[in-house]
Specification:
A hairpin with a 2-residue loop joins strand 1 and strand 2. The protein is globular, with a radius of gyration of 20 Å. By secondary structure, it is mostly helical. Helix content is 61%, strand content 5%. The structure holds zinc ion (2 copies).
Length: 201
């Protein structure tokens, strides 16, 4: 009897965690589907914490943006002890929701992007910086492809890559805006399909 009740509870717990992860997946996909495509570059870009710490900058990975100004300028720890955003000097509120997760980390939380994959980037950090940014953009494309959001990639090509007015002073964003980046992703996908066929035959 007790065992049965235990099972029921376990099942309820399981159902609850499933609903929770479904919600995370849905929220992340909605965020991805509704994002301004120029912003997709910014979301892909690896950002490092700009807070001063022991006479140099902290440099930690920035996983969230400040809700007060939208800048990805501080890591979680530094956001606790800083009063203003290091980029725009806008005050960070002491209470309430000060941080909101960046799309890339939202996708990791939802399980749409593998955490293991991300850890591998962290190791390479520094030496091949733009590679990580491009890979992160590709991961967004992969998520879009796997979740029936193919139009996002098409719009990225027509609205971002082919738009002459889409420019940036940031060299990493300029690289991400270039259509070569999307072409390489397409080539990679195509290669995967071809190799899948060879295995099947
Ligand atoms: Zn920091
Ligand atoms: Zn700011």
């Amino acid at each position: 009897m007790t065992k049965m009740r235990g099972d029921g509870e376990g099942r309820r717990e399981y159902a609850k965690s499933m609903t929770e992860s479904c919600r995370k997946v849905q929220e992340a996909l909605e965020h991805l589907a509704s994002i301004d495509l120029i912003d997709l570059c910014n979301e892909a870009k690896v950002e490092h914490c700009r807070a001063a710490r022991d006479l140099r900058s902290c440099g930690g990975r920035v996983q969230s943006v400040l809700t007060s100004c939208g800048h990805a300028s501080l890591c979680e720890e530094c956001s606790q002890r800083c009063d203003v955003c290091p980029i725009c000097r806008v005050c960070i509120p002491k209470t309430g929701n000060r941080l909101s997760l960046r799309l890339y980390y939202e996708c990791i939380e939802a399980g749409l992007i593998s955490k293991r994959y991300d850890d591998r980037f962290q190791e390479k950090d520094g030496e091949k910086q733009p590679v990580a940014d491009v890979e992160r953009l590709y991961l967004f494309f992969d998520v879009a492809l796997e979740n029936n959001l193919l139009s996002l990639i098409c719009h990225y090509i027509t609205d971002v890559c082919m738009d002459e007015s889409a420019v940036s002073s940031d060299p990493v964003v300029v690289l991400l805006l270039d259509e070569v980046v999307v072409k390489d992703w397409c080539k990679r996908i195509f290669k995967n399909i071809v190799s899948l066929f060879t295995i099947l035959m």
